[in-house]
Amino acid sequence: MQVHRLQSTVHCFMFAIFNKEINSFFSSLTAYIVMAVFLTAVGLLIWVFPDTNVLNYGYADLGAFFNLTPFVLLFLIPAITMRSLAEEVRNGTIELLLTKPLSDWGLVVGKFLADWALVVLTLAPTLLYYYTVYQLGNPVGNIDTGAVFGSYIGLLLLGAVFVAVGLWASSLSDNQIVAFVLAVFVCFLLFAGIGAVARLDFWGEFAYPLSWISLDQQYADLGRGLIDSRNVVYLLSVTGLFLWFTQNRIAGRRQ
C-alpha cells in the first residue's frame, strides 16, 4: 500500500513538472515565438521562395517541406530546451526539486514530455500544408499519403531525439547559450555529420552501416512510407540514451 502511495506521489510530481514547463512556455512568449518562427520559416520556404516553392515544382509533393524542416528543428528545439535544466541550476531551484519525492527519471521525463509536446504542437498546424497540396493535386488527392505520414512520424521521432539531446546539453551547464550551441552541434553531427563522413571513399564496406546510424538516413527511410520497426526502435533508443545521460548528470548532483 505504501509503495503504491509512493508511486502515485512520484507520478503526481512528474505531472507537476510537466505542467510547470507547459505553463512556463505559454505564460511567456516562448511558445508563441517558437511556433511563429517555425511556421513563418517553413511557410516561406514552401510557398514563397522560388527554389523550394511547391507551386513552382508542378507536382503534388511535400518533399521540400520534409527535406528542410529537420534543419529548422535542429536550431529551434535547442532554443526550447536550453533553459530546461540550465535555468534550474542557475537559479538554484534544482536543489529544491531534488528534495522532492521525485526520482531523477521522473524529473527528466517530465521535462522531456513538456518540451516534446511543444514540438508536437508546433508541427500540428503544418498538416494544413498536406490538406492544401491534397486539394491542389490533379486529380484531387494525387499525393503519396503514406510517404507524408511516414515523414511526419519521422519528424516526431527526430524531434524526440533533438529534445533529448537538448536536455542533456542543458544539464551540463548553467549557461543557456552554451547549452544551445552544444545541442545544435550534437544534433547536426547526429543528423548530417555521420552521413557526410560515411560518404567518404575510404570506408569501403563499412560505409553502409555507418550511414545507417545517421539520423538523416533513419528519417529518409521512414519518409518512404513503410514504417520499419528497426528505424523506430533506433530513434527511440537514441532518445533513451541521451535521457539516460541526463539522468546520470542529475543523479551526480545528489551526491
Strand and helix layout:
Layout: H1 2-27, H2 30-47, H3 54-57, H4 63-81, H5 86-91, H6 93-98, H7 104-123, H8 127-136, H9 145-172, H10 176-198, H11 207-212, H12 215-222, H13 229-254
Helix pairs in contact: 1-7, 2-4, 2-7, 4-9, 4-10, 7-9, 7-13, 9-10, 9-12, 9-13, 12-13
Quickly give the structural class: mainly alpha
Taking all Cα atoms into account, the compactness measure Rg is: 20 Å
Regions with pLDDT < 50 over 5+ consecutive residues? none
Number of helices: 13
User: Secondary-structure element order, as H and E?
Assistant: HHHHHHHHHHHHH
How many domain regions? Answer: 1
For the secondary structure, the number of strands is 0
Describe this protein's structure:
The protein is 78% helix and 0% strand. The protein is built from 13 helices and no strands. The longest helix is centred in the middle third of the chain and has 28 residues, at 145-172. With 255 residues, the chain is mainly α. The chain has one domain. The model has no long low-confidence stretch (mean pLDDT 84).
